[in-house]
Amino acid sequence: MKTVQKLLAFVGLLSLSALFIYALQDAPTDENFEKKLINDYNVYALQVPDDLSFSGEPMPLKNPDILERMDRELLVNTYWQSNGLLMFKRAKKYFPIIEPILKKHGIPDDFKYLAVIESGLTNAVSPAGARGVWQIMKTTGRENGLEINDNVDERYHLEKATEVACKYLLRSKEKLGSWTLAAAAYNAGVAGISRKLKEQNVSDYYDLLLIEETGRYIFRIVALKEILSNPGKYGFNFREKDLYNNIPTYKVDVDTPVTDFSQFAQEHGINYKILKLHNPWLRESHLNNKSKKLYKIDIPKKGYYDVQ
């Protein structure tokens, strides 16, 4: 019995020794850690496609300055991976709302990517006071029929804001002659672009020397268009179910004041937060509406939120 116990103890000691030696060999040394890091993560130079364009207007990529500026935007937006994935997710939710409005007004579909670079498809607020997905200034919104005050701000109403953006872009195209210049004017203003064209005695966006923001503007739009149109080519991997979906809603007509939107929401089977998520243009907890104007408030269809 003692002989067997000694034999088992010896075998156990050999096993432990073997495990210890194996562990040492497999330990994450600096050298093999670095090899693993290099093999698992690579950053590649990107080839700028030869046929990039904006709204059917080709980019002069044989010009080395234009090529370098386009290369920069492709690199910056490809390797800002978290932001890129968010753009794919939000585009699935909001492009179906924007696209038919652009089409109705005869605006090229490429302009939906202008909204992407303006706001990241969020209701952003700029330091200058522009608001909403289309980053509309207060004066521009009011001139185009939007209601903007402390109680209601329709710059946050995606459909109405898209209509205003279309009107602005059509006027810009008529005055400046190209969709590329019209897009640049969305950033710098029609007067600003017109002045620069005259001062520099050129007629094309790509020949202008501009401040950095406006100078990068078209390149950023085209970069997002290229990446969002070709996710696999630029290393983005996702499934359809990973993307965001727009929640179906129905509209409730309101032509009287609403004293308490919390109660209003409960009467329609939702809560205050959900009401505001679907109607961000309602800026306060009540609706003044002394003029008895007709508002259409979006209410999500049943079954999409678990409301307590």
Task: Describe the 3D structure.
With 308 residues, the protein is mainly alpha-helical. It folds into 2 domains: 53-242, Lysozyme (Orthogonal Bundle); 249-300. It is built from 12 helices and 4 strands, in the order H-H-E-E-H-H-H-H-H-H-H-H-E-H-H-E. It has helices spanning 2-26, 30-40, 64-78, 81-104, 112-119, 138-143, 158-176, 179-188, 190-200, 212-229, 261-267, 272-278, and strands at residues 53-54, 57-58, 249-254, 295-300. A two-stranded antiparallel ribbon has the order 1-2. The protein has a two-stranded antiparallel ribbon with strand order 3-4. Strand 1 (53-54) and strand 2 (57-58) form a beta hairpin. Helix 3 (64-78) crosses helix 10 (212-229) and helix 5 crosses helix 10.
Which percent bin holds the helix content? Answer: 40-55%
CATH topology of the largest domain: Lysozyme
CATH architecture of the largest domain: Orthogonal Bundle
Number of domains: 2
**What percentage of amino acids are in beta strands?**
5-15%
Number of helices: 12
Class of the largest domain in CATH?
A: Mainly Alpha
Count of DSSP E strands? Answer: 4
**Helix-strand pattern:** HHEEHHHHHHHHEHHE
Q: What are the low-pLDDT stretches, counting only 5+ consecutive residues below 50?
A: 1-26
Protein name: Murein transglycosylase
Keywords: Signal
Organism: Flavivirga eckloniae
InterPro entries: Lysozyme-like_dom_sf (IPR023346), Transglycosylase_SLT_dom_1 (IPR008258)
